[in-house]
Amino acid sequence: MCGIIGYVGSKPAVDILKDALTRLEYRGYDSAGIATIADDTLHLCKDKGKVAEVIKNCNIDNLPGYTGIGHVRWATHGGVTRDNAHPHCDAISQIAVVHNGIIENFEALKSRLVKKYHFKSDTDTEVIPHLIREQVDAGLSFEEAFFAAIRQLQGSYALIAVSTLADGKLFAARKDSPMVLGLGKDANFIGSDVLSFLPYSREAVYIEDGECVVMTKNTYQIYDLNHTPKKRESVAITWNLSEAGKDNQDHFMIKEIKEQPFVIRQAMMQDTRLLNRMAIDILRAHQVIFVACGTSRFAALIGRYVFSKIGHTFSDVVMASEFGYFSDSVDKNTMVIAISQSGETADVMDGVKQAKAKGATVYSIVNVEGSSLARMSDKALYLSCGPEIGVAATKSFTAQLCLLYLLAFAMDGRLSEGKEKLLEISSLIEKDLQTNLSEISLIAEKLKDKRDFYFLARGINFAMAGEGALKLKEVCYVHAEGMPAGELKHGTLALIEEGTPVIAICPTDYTYTDTISNISEAMVRGATVIGISNANQSIFAEWIKIPEVEMIFYPLVTVIPLQLLAYHSAIVRGFDPDKPRNLAKSVTVK
Ligand code: AGP
Q: Which of 577, 583, 306, 301 is nearest to 464 (CA)?
């Protein structure tokens, strides 16, 4: 959930690290900090607040040196304070560490170390520089001390250390948290993801669990925890810098919403042989289980419908954080399909590890190339939608749906037909985006003071109710519930009063008649109904028109107004939709 970056090169480290932190900020924005090494001295700046605030308030520009580390924080242990911000140092400020993850045995380690060294923070991370210090004090070289310290850690970590005792080298270690090395010209980088060093490197080396790295500006060496060297080839970085910018839009969220017609076309460019191979394996499996969290789980719920409706195959969806409780029913005949934008979500990774331990086949649908999930899966399909930086998932959801449709059509031997249909949908969405933009901002303005929202739908559209509510909660901090329209009368109807907004997702498909009747029940009790449909209805106070498409494709056209409603609602309420409070893009802790 935090972002880390390390740099060693021939340019001033602070310039590179500031830039990297700005690009890593989507991983956490509670606090930020940088440490550099110059003239046998460790220089440190850190504080709570967003990266730009910390840079402005902290005199960061004055940090000298050509080796350094940086961090953006999403708090786990210890509140949001300057002392808890990273980097953390040993008691005599010779060693600094940045860390993403959770050190599970930190209390036991701290109870021993606190007798020897002064702790300044409430974090789990601070044990790491003290552990290294303890080994140095026992007479080990810095390098030996680093490995001896890492071997004592339990839990998850991607961490980088610098020290005045380390000849300007960077030291890093990984277990269950993402970490990738970037190779540059007279410079090497190590960070949470390739975005952190994208402008400076086109070549990456993915670090595996249980590995450490020692880097200079021209060399790097990977080791296992016993300090035995390992070899790893580098791979080319396919993302480009323009994809990672805002492209003159006010926010990443709106830029990414607008990209969706292109995203559909891009997601369709899959290896046909791979798709067909995967489809056959899915059909042969005794049971098919989708595993995902958040928005990716809503995509999986739609996948379940299309696997049934198009691929004639029953599947189930298990929330990744709950998957372990069902693993008794998983065996070698089970196909697990893990869906994740980041490919680093700890709950998903945990589920996949359990499934693999039971002998299941694991296929993944993932955006980030080289991510832990992609590398751990038996086969992976990539969303190819470019980096998604807005914390609220938008274009990755649409790309996930595309791949699920393609797999379903492949399962029915109609892959080319599926592709043609998706192509038509992408053109319809392109036109629709133009008309919906201004209209939805007016509706958002009218709903500006509302605090409770109900999103209703049936059948395949039910997942869209959930996704619409999740988007609104994330970026507007209001209560929003998505539910099957038929469930309303079984309890939630009691909450409907004069003016309660009910967002009805009701295209004229097989769900239409029943959904309209449920919404009428809410309307007569005072609900203000905002209908998302291809046809207007007298019960709608507001109508958001969507194009008419084949029934199974409605999720692809209803998602756009739902995302736009959340985006504009955040804007009219004065919130930054790209950095919702308490959240971070990639949830790498359980
Ligand atoms: C979506 O808007 C959220 N930010 C969140 O629910 C997200 O979808 C979830 O954490 C899963 O992430 P993943 O797709 O990277 O695994």
A: 301
State pTM to two decimals.
0.88
- Residues serving a catalytic function are 2, 585
pLDDT per residue over 546-581, tens digit each? 999 999 999 999 999 999 999 999 999 999 999 999
Q: What is the dihedral of CA 206, 207, 208, 213, to 10 degrees?
A: 160
Alpha carbon separation from 422 to 253, 262, 406 (Å, rounded):
23, 11, 9
In angstroms, the CA 566 to CA 512 distance is 24
Residue found by looking up tokens 């969405």 in the block: 429
Q: Which two tokens stand for residue 21?
A: 């932190």
Structural domains of the chain in order of their starting residue, each with its CATH number = 3-237 (3.60.20.10), 247-413 (3.40.50.10490), 432-577 (3.40.50.10490)
How many Å is the Cα radius of gyration of the chain?
25
C-alpha span between 528 and 219 (Å, rounded)? 64
User: Could you tell me which residues are beta bridge partners of residue 31?
Assistant: 48, 73
* CA distance linking residue 29 with residue 38, whole number of Å: 27
Centroid of chain to Cα 206: 18
Quick check: 86 and 71 in contact, CB under 8 A? yes
Q: Is 508 exposed, middle or buried (0-12, 13-18, 19+ CB in 10 A)?
A: middle
Beta bridge partners, 161, equal: 97, 171
Q: Output the pLDDT for position 238.
A: 87
In this predicted model, what pLDDT tens digit does every residue of 390-439 receive, in sequence order? 999 999 999 999 999 999 999 999 999 999 999 999 999 998 887 777 78
> Which residue from 343, 394, 405 is spatially nearest to 570, judged by alpha carbons?
394
**Residue 188 Cα, ligand 1 centroid: separation in angstroms?**
30
In this structure, the residues whose C-beta lies within 6 A of any atom of ligand 1 are 293-296, 340-342, 345, 348, 391-393, 474, 586-587
